[in-house]
Amino acid sequence: MRPSCKRCVACNRVTEESSKIPFCSLHVRAYENLIVGYVDWRNAYGDLSPKEFLERVRDNEYSGRWVREVAGAVLSHEDLMQIFLNDLSSRGMKD
Ligand SMILES: [Zn+2]
Questions:
Q1: One-letter-per-residue 3-state SS of 4-61
Q2: 2 C-alpha vs ligand 1 centroid, how far in Å?
Q3: Has residue 18 got a pLDDT over 80?
Q4: Which of 23, 39, 79, 81 pairs as cysteine with 27 (C-beta 3.0–4.6 A)?
Q5: CA 18 – CA 67 distance, rounded (Å)
Q6: How close is the Cα of 36 to the center of ligand 1, in Å?
């Protein structure tokens, strides 16, 4: 197996090699929704840390399944959390 053959952290599918985050294409889309969702959430509810936001998404049964899985994966992987925070700040979400 080539070392570039990585698997999705959330569902263990083989990920696309070009992806900078360890998610399959389905979970990458959910991840993008999370980034956008955080912006919306903050606009609606005011101050909420990225970690609190992820916990709420993960524990909310009305969140989509994919999004909940991504939120859980980010919360349990420090390196993913760092990427998530970087992506937020690169979109102007830094305080
Ligand atoms: Zn996946």
A1: CCCECCCCCCECCCCCCCCCCHHHHHHHHHHHHHHHHHHHHHCCCCHHHHHHHHHHCC
A2: 19
A3: no
A4: 23
A5: 21
A6: 19
Structure-token match 């509810």, residue found:
45
Q: How far is the CA of 42 from the centre of ligand 1 (A)?
A: 26
Rounded mean pLDDT of 57-79? 95
Dist. CA 24 → ligand 1 center (Å): 4
Structure tokens at 72: 């859980």
Number of other CB atoms surrounding residue 57 within 10 Å: 24
The distance between the two most distant Cα atoms of the chain, rounded to a whole number of Å, is 47
Statement: residue 65 has pLDDT above 60: yes
Q: Lowest mean pLDDT: which of 12-26, 44-58, 69-83?
A: 12-26
Ligand 1 ion: residues within 5 Å (CB): 8, 10-11, 13, 24, 27
pTM of the model: 0.84
